[in-house]
Amino acid sequence: MSKGRSGAGKTFERIADVARSQLAVAQQARDTGLVEQLWTEISEAAGDFRGLLRDGYRMPEEELERRVEHLLGNKNLNEFGVDPFGFSPDYVRKIFPVVEAMYRLWYRTEVFGIENVPETGRCLLISNHSGQLPFDGAVIGASLLLDRDPPRMIRSMVEKFATALPFFGTFCVRCGQVTGLPDNCRRLLEAEESVLVFPEGANGISKPFSQRYKLARFGHGFMRLALETNSPIVPIAVVGAEEQIINLGNAAWLAKLVGAPSVPIPPLALLLGPAAMLPMPVKLRIYYGEPLSFEGDPNDDDAVIALKVAEVRRAIDSLIERGLRERRGYFI
Q1: Cβ distance 146 to 100 under 8 Å?
Q2: pLDDT by residue (tens digit) across 61-120?
């Protein structure tokens, strides 16, 4: 028998260590009144939830149809109602009630600066990425459909792993998401689309809780495409998603086994299994910054491109800091 510990064994030991530390944190939280604060927040959030159910949160059907028809005005759909990338407006109509309930009820999303997204024409939406599951992309898309008038349809660049999954991959494509390849992004921008990119990639969405709201390294590809296609960049910050699923670490051995970029370890993973990945009903806030325009050669050295990327990163960091200052809690 090998003297080394297996990957699974190391993971379980890590979970045990984290659990012990969490007990200490829980005791400290009780002593500092954090538990009472969270209980107050959850009670207020529950009141908001009941109010939305009572007063109605759904967009009137005729208004929704008006917005959908506006979005279809410049879409290149074939005889089956699908565009060259697989996007299906009819499919989106079917799942829209679920998206609207998630956006309005579960997350009670607030939006700031949405008028900074250009009404028409190509643009790159560049956002921080967080939350273990890509609900941040879903709420950004929902905000531009529900809270912007006229609305805009966005096309999200997603990991190859997601679009290759059975059923879920089809779901992504039918909803307008596209495998994150430079050529796909270039074609969409040249078709005057708005494209959502998370330059942190999988490293952003899988951060442990201790690294919340600390941006991971940005890739440079989006900036080269912005320069090549003369596309403005709208910086975006999503605040709240870091707390929707607490990640204690990543099970690297399991991620390698299933071919995923990462597999997070929520606190109750051993007790609840996959159900531990259910996101908590935290309140999400989306901040849209003013558009940024860049000039230069898209084939410049990495050092030159990095300076431009750093400007976008600073803009997003500033929006995150604003969001953290302005929010009253995790759930309210």
Answers
A1: yes
A2: 899 888 888 877 666 777 777 888 888 888 888 888 999 999 999 999 999 999 999 999
pTM of the model: 0.86
- Amino acid residing at 331: F
Tell me: the pLDDT tens digits for 219-241? 999 999 999 999 999 999 999 99
CA separation, residue 274 to residues 185, 264, 268 (Å): 33, 11, 9
**Which position has the token pair 């089956």?**
80
The dihedral region occupied by 145, where left means phi > 0, alpha psi between -120 and 50, and beta the remainder, is: alpha
Q: What range defines the domain where residue 303 resides? A: 29-239+281-326
Query: Alpha-carbon torsion 209, 215, 219, 223, what sign?
Result: positive
What DSSP designation does 251 have? -
Q: What is the CATH number of the domain that holds 294?
A: 3.40.1130
The CA–CA distances, whole Å, from 90 to 81, 83, 93, 107, 320 equal 7, 12, 5, 25, 35
251 and 321 share one domain: no
